[in-house]
Write a structure and sequence with these properties.
Number of strands: 3
Radius of gyration: 31 Å
Helix content: 40-55%
Shape: globular
Length: 243
């Protein structure tokens, strides 16, 4: 057969095939309409602006105050609810340059973690944070993080040596201080395992204070040894009840 006389056969869909095509077309139109409605709705309802650094910092400080109050008054170690937790972004917004006054729980705890375990591992930083939190929950110690960290200055017997060594207390390395704030955040959120086994005292390996001879050593983490009194310390809640 000559090529000029060849005719391409005409395809005629069956009734069933035509029906399927119609269904697919209608589904496509419906999905397009739904997407269009969603876009229109999103455009008509503008998203709320992201919080500023200052707003995140204030939120973190407010949460930290509530968390330290719970930590100082509860002995069951109940975990905070999701809404009570300090987020990483909120914690990092606090004291961004490491130069602010030590007036809130995050700054006080982070600065203490930074100076006591500066240059050591994250585990060492977490151990220092645990001692502060352990003190917060026991009678005989202040009931705020800043109170614990600054304790003893008025009598010249600072509990944390960096606080009254006469040198500037501002953080000097951005990365190290950011890690210290992250450790402080997790400690306040009760998201840290207590590496110190309940210790409320510690000292560097280079020194040996007199009290280390009468307290029970619980562990060693990094360059520090950790202790707790031989007599169990009363949780703050029990001490308040017995009065």
């Amino acid at each position: 057969m000559p090529l000029s006389s060849f005719h391409r056969p005409v395809f005629r869909p069956s009734a069933a095939q035509g029906a399927r095509r119609l269904v697919h077309t209608l589904i496509g139109l419906a999905l397009s309409a739904l997407v269009g409605c969603g876009v229109a709705r999103d455009e008509s309802e503008p998203a709320s602006p992201a919080p500023t650094v200052e707003e995140r910092a204030e939120t973190a400080k407010s949460k930290a105050e509530a968390l330290e109050e719970k930590a100082s008054s509860e002995s069951d170690g109940a975990r905070p609810s999701p809404g009570e937790l300090i987020t990483r972004a909120e914690a990092q917004a606090v004291d961004p340059k490491g130069k602010e006054s030590l007036d809130d729980a995050i700054t006080c705890l982070a600065r203490s973690v930074y100076w006591e375990a500066r240059g050591e591992s994250q585990a060492a930083m977490e151990a220092v944070a645990s001692v502060v939190m352990n003190r917060l929950g026991h009678s005989g110690f202040p009931d705020t993080v800043c109170g614990v960290v600054k304790g003893g200055r008025e009598t010249g017997t600072c509990q944390f040596s960096w606080w009254c060594d006469g040198r500037p207390d501002t953080a000097q390395e951005t990365e190290g201080y950011e890690l210290a704030k992250e450790v402080a955040r997790k400690a306040l959120n009760r998201q840290l395992a207590d590496r110190t086994q309940g210790a409320t005292y510690f000292h560097h390996k280079r020194v040996r204070p007199a009290w280390s001879k009468i307290f029970t050593r619980t562990t060693t983490v990094g360059g520090h040894r950790f202790y707790k009194p031989n007599e169990p310390e009363k949780p703050r809640s029990e001490a308040a009840t017995s009065k």
